[in-house]
Amino acid sequence: MPDLDATCSLDLGCPSDDFAAFCDAHPDRQVVVYANTSAAVKARADWMVTSSCALAIVKHLKDQGQKVLWAPDRHLGAYIQRETGADMLLWNGDCIVHNEFKGVELELLKARHPNAMVLVHPESPEAVVKLADVVGSTSQMLKAVIDGKAQEYIVATDNLIMHRMRQLAPGKTLFEAPTAGNSATCKSCAHCPWMAMNGLQGVIACLENGQGEITVNPAVGKDAVRCIDRMLAYVAANPAALAPKVQGMVRSIGAA
Question: Residue 20 and residue 33: Cα distance in Å, rounded?
């Protein structure tokens, strides 16, 4: 890692011992965890997912009659639960960035820019997701700006994505979705403090000097990789299953 202190609020909010106890209390459920978790948490999981395949995999489990234990992001879990109707028990975690977006403020910003498309990551609160034209992963939001016919976009995810959007879609106008407040009253202000720690000098140190090496207990790693391999195998074997998911998460991309 470019910086070994660059962690994640989702990881910090899901300690492995507490999570193991949570799993032990609900042995009848398939354990599905988001990628932003520790190896020890993944070692207790049946499935790992990313935001681009989570809907398809949870729907697959629901169709098999399985109940799901989901961790760590409660907003993403609740979104998937609403979209799939799956029986899901949610860990009470959230992303420090997406949790701060506010529906009331977003509605006011939309009123000032009525022709803007609203792009929202599903780790955001329900009130924010309900106002979205596009709900999707980072790559899906980026695609919406590149392919969309709208001139203006309101973006509810980490604001570092704005630079890439401007590179790939020059001439389009982007607005940051409002967070908890202005400057000092918000924790992240739509900018992850840990992601920002991964600078170019750290990347160079990794590549040239092997700095930032991570070691994982072999037994934990062996258990953790199973849920990752299961996800990769499902995605490779079921490309058609992901296509409807994209239509669901990116609701308006065809009309953008």
Answer: 12
- pTM listed for this prediction: 0.88
Q: Which residues pair with 68 in a beta bridge?
A: 30, 88
The two beta strands, 173-176 and 30-34, are: unpaired
Does residue 80 lie in a domain region?
yes
Residues 187 and 115 in one domain: yes
The residue length of the chain stands at 256
Q: Please indicate, yes or no, whether residues 35 and 61 belong to a single structural domain of this protein.
A: yes
Euclidean distance between the first and the last CA atom of the chain, given in angstroms as a whole number? 37
Last residue of a domain, one of 191, 207, 240: 191
Number of structural domains the chain divides into? 2
Secondary structure class of 217 (helix, strand, coil):
coil
Largest CA distance in the chain: 55
Domain extent at residue 63: 9-94+215-248
Examine residue 244 and state whether it is found in any structural domain, yes or no. yes
Contact 42, 21 (CB under 8 A): no
Q: One digit per residue, pLDDT tens: the chain, 256 residues?
A: 999 999 999 999 999 999 999 999 999 999 999 999 999 999 999 999 998 899 999 999 999 999 999 999 999 999 999 999 999 999 999 999 999 999 999 999 999 999 999 999 999 999 999 999 999 888 889 999 999 999 999 999 999 999 999 999 999 999 999 986 555 457 668 889 998 899 999 999 999 999 999 999 999 999 999 999 999 999 999 988 775 443 344 443 333 3
